[in-house]
What does this fold into?
Amino acid sequence: MLFNSFEFLFFLPIVFLLYWFVFRERHWQNFLVVVASYIFYGWWDWRFLLLIAMTSFFSFCSGLLLERFEGQRKKQKLVSAANIALNIAILGVFKYYNFFVENLDALLGALGWHLDWVTMNIILPVGISFYTFQALSYSIDVYQKKLPATHDIVEFFAYISFFPQLVAGPIERATNLLPQFQKQRTFDYALAVDGMRQMLWGFFKKMVIADNCATTVNVIWADYADQTGLVLWVCVTLFTFQIYCDFSGYSDIAIGSARLFGVNLMRNFNFPYFSRSIPEFWRRWHISFTTWFRDYIYFPLGGSRCDKWKVIRNVYIVWGISGLWHGANWTYVCWGLYHGTLLAIYNICGINTKYEHIVAYGKILPNLKETFQIIITFALTVIGFVIFRSETIGDAGQYLMGMFNSSLFDISGSMESLKGKHLVFNSVVIIMMLVIEWIQRKKQHALQLSGNGVLGRSSVLRFLIYFLLVMMIVIFAEKQSEFIYFQF
It folds into this structure.
């Protein structure tokens, strides 16, 4: 079920009313969460309910076995390794089987051998990467004694399948989300209202900005070889805002929806396009993802406690895997290694990226140094998204060469190509979003209007913003496009 669908418009209030007015006791609320989540997920394809149920069940059992074998470290290692292997195997088959077979076939093709007969027509289950990593975090955290194993299978299934963040995150940790299903929840009016504000901002970013940018991006990208360098820059810049508004919009809706049920999900985006360096960007973009890889892969490899060259090795391992996590395509791997290279350069050069304060702290606008840092970081991010968006590495290379050839200065030809591409509208709504997020950059989300901020002091201005956002969402309500990260 899509957040931006009429089905969800009816689904959410019904679940909300049942949750607070019928199923008031914690155990029954958890049971409702599981049922509602399975309806939400099964709306797309009911066949994959068995897959998420199996992942949940085996991870739940692994926790019980880890507890049973307390003090028997070898047996605990065996249980933890078996659960990790099982979950990775399921993810590997559904997401990467054909990718590896096709690449092996290409490799063996030089010897006259072909493996076409072992490929399968496998449908990628929506959100499998997200809930698999969530299940893995539980097993690892129990093994590392960061939390006790749960004996309540319903609350565990609620943790894995909680519908607001089930399909595209945030990738929750058992240490944060599971305890919330283990205690009685009470309705918090202020929290619910703030959640609705965050949902409104998420719907605006997805339906008004991301989906309209997508229309322009798809048309230009389909014919990129015949476009000028300037048009290619405009196109990938629009894609950079499209993917941000699409993905962070999902996170805003997910976090806001969860607050309606008295549940706090972790923050997933922290205004990343105001970053002053690539390391800062990755501390602000898809936070649940980057911290998962940091805690469960980077730190076990030695993290930053090794000598410099081992640190760089660790960075490349983590970012190569994280690129592959995004999809079964070499472009994602190259995109991950591209960012790994940038992070390695920052490390080698000893550039300080741990800032004491947010950008333009205590000021209205950034200074010249900060402005330059933001522009450079954004440009590097844009270049990376060329690789991410391309179908093949060859396409990415041709697109990048097109961005930097002499046609970059063909202003008249570029303007002619951009006619009828909704460039003015897209620019206006992007600037509107950036202005509001800049003003609110100290807050948890752009429409957190409590306190003494510029937007918080004027009720007239607040309701004017609400009205404008709602009207724009209603205008574009007929579009029901999937979120980009559904494919991951």
Observations:
- The CA atoms of residues 25 and 479 lie 38 Å apart.
- DSSP finds 18 helices and no strands in the chain.
- The two ends are 16 Å apart (CA to CA).
